[in-house]
Specification:
alpha/beta, seven-stranded mixed sheet, 33% helix
């Protein structure tokens, strides 16, 4: 049985959620000598939808059925050990009073998560940052609800860092923050530094989801940097490029008058190729790429090219994408699809790009699919996925509003963060352990924290492929 205690601090609800395990309402059989509950997947179901239906976390479904990590199909059988999910005898917590318990009420200390975010509850006109924070919070609550079947206690505190009547030191001096098992820090470097110092003294962990290039994790053992550091991102992305396009000649596209803000990454790629005795081809153009400029590439044999632009912006993408697509289509048309004897000699051209492209919509997104483009990203942006659509539906039912469109999606960021933190705390008997479980795979984010210097950083990266027909596939490194 789940009990929820509502409390208030800075006018935002603070939740104390008690999770109670329960038996599954499923048939039982013996598989390899072990009693298991079993469930047959129906048409159009997703892992997330099944988790809501059965009251099992998405992560537990994948843990017991690793083959569904990339999704489920109709007719698949899912198995869950009876020993783990049978009804257990537990001491049932006393039901709370009908009225919310106020923040200054003394209760037994439980593990807790503090969300310190700029909700802007006092603002006459909430900023976009305020709206993002509220979407994150709402997604976090939906994530907490998916784990409400589990036994244990986790309190969730949400505190408005945009409240002008409260100073940083004032908020950090609150007992709820001092006692927090883990704190989710706001997208503000000043706040992050103060929270990090306080957490180190109080032995709380700090999850930094928002300040991407922060390096506090190098010197503070309580810091968890959720974004993979740039140098590691470059390394993993280039590893994927070299592996996926073995035998391809890299072609660098550079606009002489463009931003070329990815030059550092392009230089790193070129260095890696030269270390493998491969000299990249560089095509420079002015303003817009011309057909004649890309047709200098030989295509009379089985040449393979991978295009790597030196900018990730939408404006620059539009300056070359149509020409690259036309050239690519021409190459694919040189040999008919049913001419298997010649298909292996067909010249090919692929394109490798950037996380910025996950924000593309409309014609640009359609072009990504037609190009079969591959990108690297910290986030999986497949918002056509059934799991995301189910959360989007729950979001509307719970809060009566739509999720704000953004990359990364803040509601999904909150949902995944809740599942990561709550499950970790419950598995580790009320403590948070960055090293166990080693990897958490959410809907939009994957977390695999590695120890470095003093603190921890997330060492995962997505490689995403946009396929013709609007499909998106992703894998994590």
């Amino acid at each position: 049985m789940k009990r929820i205690i509502l409390r208030y601090l800075l006018f935002l609800p603070l939740l104390a959620i008690t999770f109670q395990s329960k038996a599954l309402d499923l048939p039982v059989k013996v598989v390899k000598g072990i009693e298991v509950y079993y469930y047959k997947v129906n048409s159009k179901e997703s892992v997330y939808g099944i988790s809501k239906k059965l009251g099992i976390s998405r992560e537990d479904i994948v843990r017991h059925n690793p083959s569904v990590a990339d999704g489920v199909k109709r007719g698949m059988m899912l198995y869950f050990p009876v020993a783990e999910y049978s009804e257990a005898e537990h001491d049932i917590a006393t039901e709370p009073a009908e009225q919310p318990v106020l923040a200054d009420t003394i209760i037994e200390k439980n593990p807790s998560i503090a969300l310190l975010l700029p909700f802007g509850l006092d603002a006459q006109e909430p900023s976009r940052e305020n709206k993002f924070a509220l979407d994150f919070y709402k997604g976090f609550l939906i994530g907490a609800d998916t784990l409400s079947h589990r036994q244990g206690n986790v309190e969730i505190y949400a505190i408005d860092t945009d409240n002008k009547s409260e100073s940083i030191s004032g908020i950090l001096s609150k007992q709820e923050i001092k006692d927090a098992t883990i704190i989710v820090a706001p997208p503000n470097p000043t706040w992050l530094n103060a929270i990090a110092d306080s957490a180190l003294a109080n032995r709380s962990y700090v999850l930094n989801l928002f300040v991407i290039h922060d390096s506090l994790y190098l010197s503070n053992q309580r810091m968890l940097q959720a974004s993979i550091p740039q140098k590691d991102m470059y390394r993993l992305a280039t590893d994927a490029l070299l592996s996926q396009y073995t035998g391809y000649t890299p072609v660098i596209l550079r606009n002489k008058d463009g931003k070329n803000e990815k030059e550092a990454f392009v230089n790193y790629i070129c260095e890696r190729y030269r270390n493998n005795s491969v000299e990249p081809v560089v095509i420079e153009y002015e303003n817009n790429l011309l057909v004649s400029e890309i047709e200098v590439l030989p295509t009379d044999g089985n040449e393979r090219y991978v295009i790597i632009p030196s900018s990730g912006s939408l404006a620059e993408f539009n300056r070359f994408a149509y020409v690259v697509k036309s050239f690519r289509d021409k190459l694919f048309a040189t040999v008919s699809d049913d001419d298997s004897a010649l298909s292996s000699y067909r010249s090919r051209i692929e394109i490798f790009g950037y996380p910025d492209w996950t924000a593309f919509r409309g014609d640009a997104l359609d072009t990504l699919h037609k190009l079969g483009a591959t990108i690297y990203s910290r986030f999986n942006d497949n918002y056509n996925d059934y799991s995301y659509q189910t959360i989007e539906s729950d979001f509307m039912k719970w809060f009566g509003t739509e999720i704000i469109e953004s990359v990364p999606n803040q509601a999904l960021l909150g949902y995944d963060a809740a599942c990561l933190l709550i499950k970790n705390i419950l598995i580790n008997n009320g403590e948070f352990n960055p090293a166990y479980p080693q990897r958490f795979e959410g809907i939009q984010s994957t977390y695999d924290f590695e120890k470095t210097h003093e603190g921890y950083y997330n060492a995962t990266l997505y490689i995403i492929n946009y396929q013709p027909g609007g499909q998106v596939s992703a894998r994590t490194l």
